[in-house]
């Protein structure tokens, strides 16, 4: 398996730029972007730029780096979004709900009880873009 890229993989295509994303953060080894079917406002995916199928397939140094970045993104969202909590998780295998077979961490912000931001948002392309530029991490 070539871990650099998989030509069938939608997340590898996002890394290569052949599919667009709502960009949040990038460094040499990882990329974060908004989930296109968000569970709450600000639902973000964080992926390694290299293709690994899931957590079990990914070298530990990369898992450590992605978790460090997930923590930075979450801390940033406390301020940028007014989030007050998070679910941060990864699915391993289709029986656990993994659909995209390129390792990714879900960062799902939560807000005070009764906030509409806890609901599944229906966002236009423009609204996704506005949100991403508002909460981008530099
Ligand atoms: P999982 O079920 O853990 O494999 O999660 C895959 C996630 O990727 C889902 O939440 C999808 O909404 C999301 N997703 C699929 N395609 C894209 C895409 N092109 N851009 C952003 N998110 C995507
Ligand atoms: Zn991939």
What can you tell me about this protein's structure?
This protein is 28% helix and 18% strand. It is an alpha+beta fold. The protein has one domain: HIT family, subunit A (2-Layer Sandwich). A 5-stranded antiparallel β-sheet has the order 1-2-3-5-4. The chain is globular. It starts with 9 loop residues before the first helix and ends with a helix. The model has no long low-confidence stretch (mean pLDDT 96). Adenosine monophosphate is lined by residues 10, 19, 21, 33, 35-37, 45, 91, 97-100.
List keywords for this structure.
alpha+beta, single chain, binds zinc ion, 3 helices, 138 residues, 28% helix, binds adenosine monophosphate, HIT family, subunit A
The major pleated sheet works out as: 5 strands, antiparallel
Structural class: alpha+beta
**Superfamily (CATH H level) name:** HIT-like
Number of strands: 5
CATH architecture call: 2-Layer Sandwich
Report strand order across the widest sheet.
1-2-3-5-4
Compact overview of the structure:
The chain has 138 residues and is α+β, with helices and mostly antiparallel strands. It has helices spanning 10-16, 60-80, 125-135, and strands spanning 23-26, 30-34, 44-48, 85-89, 105-110.
Itemize the secondary structure elements and their pairings:
Layout: H1 10-16, E1 23-26, E2 30-34, E3 44-48, H2 60-80, E4 85-89, E5 105-110, H3 125-135
Antiparallel strand pairs: 1-2, 2-3, 3-5, 4-5
Adenosine monophosphate binds at residues 10, 19, 21, 33, 35-37, 45, 91, 97-100.
